[in-house]
Write a structure and sequence with these properties.
catalytic activity; Enoyl-CoA_hydra_C; Crotonase/enoyl-CoA hydratase family protein; Enoyl-CoA_hyd/isom_CS; 2-enoyl-CoA Hydratase, Chain A, domain 1; ClpP/crotonase-like_dom_sf
Length: about 270
């Protein structure tokens, strides 16, 4: 994989073909969030949206841990890297962008979770589109238990993604949950053996990357743009985004490849 120059000391950003892999890289602090890390995350999501050849991104953590939440002290400090400091001043609201709360990437993001994904770690997971979790992983939104508030967006998003009673269980009790519980709630897509989350996420990423990129982006945007709309209005948005996909050269190629029993070659950007 190619290490990209938008990486920071606490966030490694790598590219392999159509797949972007973003690794939270602060293992000495169980990958707790820092300003340095959030600048890297924000840069990675902007790159994923802007780079035509990127079709999907994976978010993971270094050394067997996803993310143990916010390090409030580190988040309030500037990076020790002058280049990262300068970049932070050029990215408005880099904290929210890094946390997938604002300016979401136009390409799907898959989370690959090992070890702890708690507090801000679970908030990041809730911001992703597909979720692969190792069987011994621990998840949870601990904020209320500590008289804090989940500022990453989970107080709004969680009950829109899983049944209300499960969302309130996680938000109001602040209790940890297992990967099996997360799967039973519908919070994650797959539970895999320990040490296999990134491998499984890469397999899933390849499936997404093999799909038509115009269709994938339009499906993501339709969901996001229709939140809160009544069905008739939502269907209008769906039609506006869907018909150009149906009429695209990629759609013709997909149909032709199916008839010819070969992999499609999508050229749209």
């Amino acid at each position: 994989m190619e290490l990209l120059p938008i990486s920071t000391p606490h966030c490694r950003v790598e590219r392999d073909g159509h797949v972007l892999t973003v690794t939270m890289n602060r293992p000495e602090a169980r990958n707790a969030l820092s300003s340095d890390m959030l600048v890297g995350l924000a840069s990675a999501w902007a790159y994923a949206s802007a780079e035509p050849e990127i079709r999907v991104a994976i978010l993971t953590g270094a050394d067997g841990t996803f993310c143990s939440g916010a390090d409030l002290k580190a988040m309030g400090q500037q990076s020790t890297d002058p280049a990262v400091q300068a970049r932070a001043t050029r990215i408005p609201n880099f904290h929210w962008k890094g946390l997938l709360r604002e300016d979401l990437p136009t390409k799907p993001v898959i989370s690959a979770v090992e070890g702890h994904a708690v507090a801000g770690g679970t908030e990041l997971l809730v911001g992703t589109d597909l979720r692969v979790v190792a069987e011994s992983a621990t998840l949870g939104l601990f904020e209320a238990r500590r008289a804090l508030f989940p500022m990453g967006g989970s107080a709004v998003r969680l009950a829109r993604q899983i049944p209300y009673c499960h969302a309130m269980d996680l938000l109001l009790t602040g209790r940890p949950i297992t990967a099996a519980e997360a799967l039973s709630m519908g919070l994650v897509n797959r539970v895999v053996p320990d040490g296999q989350a990134l491998t499984a996420a890469r397999e899933l990423a390849e499936d997404v990357a093999a799909a038509g990129p115009l269709a994938v982006r339009a499906i993501l945007r339709t969901y996001r743009d229709t939140l809160g709309l009544a069905e008739p209005e939502a269907l209008k948005v769906s039609d506006e985004l869907g018909w150009p996909v149906i009429g695209s050269e990629d759609a013709k190629e997909g149909t032709l490849a199916f008839r010819e029993k070969r992999p499609p070659i999508y050229r749209a950007r």
